[in-house]
Amino acid sequence: MKLTRTKGLRGTISIPGDKSISHRSIMFGSIAEGTTTIRNFLMGADCLATIDCFRSMGIAIEVTDKVVTVHGKGLRGLTKPDKVLDVGNSGTTTRLISGILSGQDFDVTLSGDASLNSRPMKRIMTPLNAMGADISSINDNGCAPLLIRGSKIKASHYNSPVASAQVKSAVLLAGLYGDGPTSVTEPAVSRNHTELMLQSFGVDVICEGKTATVIPPNKMTGQDIVVPGDISSAAYFIVAGLITPDSEITMKHVGINPTRDGIIKVCQAMGADITLSNVEDSNGEPTADITVKTSRLHGTEIGGDIIPTLIDEIPIIALLACFADGQTVIKNAEELKVKESNRIDLMVNNLKRMGADAVATDDGMIITGGRPLTGISLNCKYDHRIAMTFSIAGINADGEMDIEDAECVDVSYPNFYATLKELAE
Ligand code: SPQ
């Protein structure tokens, strides 16, 4: 994909469904009784992998343009797949499904692409195995492929060393099959979609400060879900609207759950012209229309408890910082090293290649804004968030930006380039 400087991104767009919520809607619909309907489901490659996994375990899932319908079979209704479950590029699929599969009465093997199979899985194996699960790394390297042997799950409390919704969710989902309440305490609150959606499916989930507790239910009941627009996808157009001259973009019906809205707070702290309107509730998830206009920005410091609320937005925030006056310091973000790529290295190295003043630190980066950027040729290691970030960089740079593996945006935002083109016209 080749991109060159663009001016005046203008228009009103809808943002595809939230990836985290879409995954959970398929998983919980499958183990609930009755039908779950899902509107604005994200048809990205990661969520389609989750659908395929549950179809392989005997769940009928119909997909049309407008609605996905899951015919749930209850907590004990999954059946042994006759092949290895292919989790593709998706960490969420792998880690959440592992929690559910821990408590089944059959064995399963999970495997993904090269990036997925190099991401750390000990972080879920350790707490799940402590609950009585039997999960092993087939190559004995703490990564997928994983062999999960269905087991009896014991109620448990886990003090998680990382603020990770995937770790928290894996433990809580195994806890659905436990012999008593299971709780997780994290160092900072990570996204809470699992807790909110389990509650809407009728599960007793108690959230107190940094601890979430699940009480094993007798059953879960199918729901009608409308998935909010994904704030992590909106983030590319929030930043594009702020840094591209002569721009004004409105994004409709975007999720603004406080465990995900760190990007909005950071934009405000940097002096951005960003407004929220039409605030509504969608199955317990708050949503709003977000409008941004080209803005004069200044640097800021980002660290501590806000990090889990914007972890996937740090690549695009790093680009934003290149267009702000002064220094932006991002710290406590070491989790970026274990995403689809090492996002600290990939961002800093390539921003530097474009001419930016960017320095990698052990747990983040320091960026001093104001230097002009020039297009480069880039391989994103198939990381969708890196590809979208450098696409927005490319339309704000001199020369030509060439992204070799741009098709990886399909993981979370299949229409990304079409929407970018629409706004530029
Ligand atoms: O699913 P995957 O590949 O892990 O996706 C990412 C992303 O950038 O889309 C992370 F690479 O999002 C994670 C996010 O970083 C999705 C997620 C969830 O749905 O629970 C939680 C976060 O990960 P973690 O490790 O902090 O729990």
Could you characterize what this model shows?
The protein is of the alpha/beta class and 425 residues long. It has twelve helices and 25 strands. It has a four-stranded mixed β-sheet. Strand 16 (273-282) and strand 17 form a beta hairpin. The longest helix is centred in the middle third of the chain and has 13 residues, at 231-243. The radius of gyration is 21 Å and the shape is globular. It starts with a strand and ends with a helix. The model has no long low-confidence stretch (mean pLDDT 97). The structure holds ligand SPQ. Residues 19-20, 46, 90-92, 164-166, 169, 190-191, 311-312, 335, 339-340, 385, 412 line the site of ligand SPQ.
Count of helical regions: 12
Mean pLDDT: 97
Bound molecules: ligand SPQ
The whole-angstrom Rg is: 21 Å
Percent helix range:
25-40%
Beta-strand percentage range:
25-35%
Q: What is the β-strand count?
A: 25
Q: What is the multimeric organization of the chains shown?
A: single chain
- Main sheet strand line-up: 2-15-17-16
Poorly predicted segments: none
Overall geometry: globular
Strand pairing plus helix content: what structural class? alpha/beta
Could you give the distance between the termini?
Answer: 18 Å
Largest sheet: 4 strands, mixed
